[in-house]
Design goal:
Blueprint: H1 7-14, H2 18-25, H3 32-45, H4 47-58, E1 63-68, H5 74-89, E2 93-98, H6 103-115, E3 120-124, H7 130-141, E4 146-149, E5 157-161, H8 163-176, E6 181-186, H9 192-207, E7 214-219, H10 224-228, H11 231-235, E8 241-244, H12 247-259, E9 269-274, E10 287-290, H13 293-308, E11 316-319, E12 322-324
Parallel strand pairs: 1-2, 1-3, 3-4, 4-5, 5-11, 6-7, 6-8, 8-9, 9-10
Antiparallel strand pairs: 10-12
């Protein structure tokens, strides 16, 4: 009979202590160099399959892996709440990792969670690549389904908000409010949902049949500080309205406008996407397109549970959005833009 690979075997091959391997398998801190050696030893010996084989054969582990891009995002926190509540209802526990907005780290996090013996994985993805396809196929062979949240790709199972529709919703509103000269502050197009679909949806409706309408684009990063430091570029384009790909980006823009003595919305209107709670208490309160991220998390959990039951699951790309009209957008009379 072939001898089962042990933690000590992995430690010997990786030239680390047994406790280091144990800490790695239990999601504790291990240096990148040692983690890489342990990963190579696991891949070479098939340890991950052996380590969890009896448990997976007898019953599922009751653990679900979750990968998110950031730990400080209001959206991510609400979605994680929805996931946690839904999985808790059926007795499942979450193992959580953050990619910290790094695609390579996202892939490694998926692989690491699989090695820890989770039943399935939910990935709030930065973007889906061919490397993701290959990893999903490998995990499918090990009976570990992967569900992506926030990005759309026909090669994987996913659930996402209707980003294009949300863009159209805000584009129609800003147009009806009389604005013609808009700066859209967005993120890299590598993030197709936030960086492309929201911008394209907005521009399509806002400029349709209106020769006087213009939308210029300023690229920034996620978060308040990044957009705050882009204020010079934004103001140089003399917009009557600034539309931001996330509420967090909008908060940075509003701060810069206030510090430059520019009245919001008297001189420049501002709007965002997300429906963050903070938007209700800014001055003025932020007009936004809101998504129910907690319900999105619940629906994602239910989808993954159905996948674990070998049910046929259809991907979802039309999770709805809602326009919340507050005080940060002013109505402009036609021809009054200077």
């Amino acid at each position: 009979m072939e001898r089962r690979v042990t933690i000590q075997d992995i430690a010997t091959i990786a030239e680390v202590s047994k406790s280091t391997v144990s800490r790695y398998l239990n999601h504790g801190y291990v240096s990148e160099e040692k983690a890489e050696r342990i990963q190579q030893a696991i891949a070479a010996t098939g340890f991950s399959s052996n380590a969890f084989a009896r448990r997976l054969k007898a019953k599922r582990s009751g653990m679900i892996g979750v990968v998110t891009p950031r730990v400080d995002s209001p959206m991510g926190g609400r979605m994680l709440t929805g996931l946690s509540k839904a999985f808790d209802e059926v007795g499942c526990q979450i193992l959580f990792q953050s990619s910290f907005l790094d695609m390579e780290r996202e892939l490694k996090s998926i692989e690491h969670l699989a090695q820890l013996g989770v039943d399935g994985i939910v990935v709030h993805s930065l973007g889906i690549t061919t490397a993701h396809y290959a990893l999903v196929e490998t995990l499918k062979e090990r009976d570990v389904p992967v569900l992506f949240v926030g990005q759309q790709d026909e090669n994987v199972k996913y659930i996402k908000v209707d980003d294009f529709g949300a863009g159209r919703l805000l584009g129609d509103y800003i147009r009806r409010m009389g604005h013609e000269r808009v700066v859209f502050v967005g993120v890299t197009e590598k993030d197709r949902a936030v960086g492309v679909e929201r911008k394209d949806g907005f521009s399509e409706i806002f400029t349709r049949g209106n020769r006087g309408a213009s939308v210029s684009f300023v690229e920034t990063e996620f978060g308040i500080e990044a957009s705050y430091h882009k204020s010079g570029e934004i103001l140089a384009r003399r917009p009557s309205a600034v539309v931001c790909a996330t509420d967090g980006i909008a908060f940075g823009v509003m701060r810069a406008l206030h510090e430059n003595g520019i009245a919001v919305p008297g001189e420049v209107s501002v709007a965002g996407f997300g429906g963050y709670d903070m938007g209700a208490v800014t001055y003025p309160p932020l007009t936004t397109v809101a998504f129910d991220y907690e319900e999105l998390g619940r629906r994602a959990a239910r989808m993954l549970l159905r996948m674990l039951s070998a049910e046929i699951v259809e991907s979802v790309s039309d999770f709805p959005a809602q326009l919340i009209e507050r005080g940060s957008v002013n109505k402009v009379l036609w021809g009054s833009e200077g």
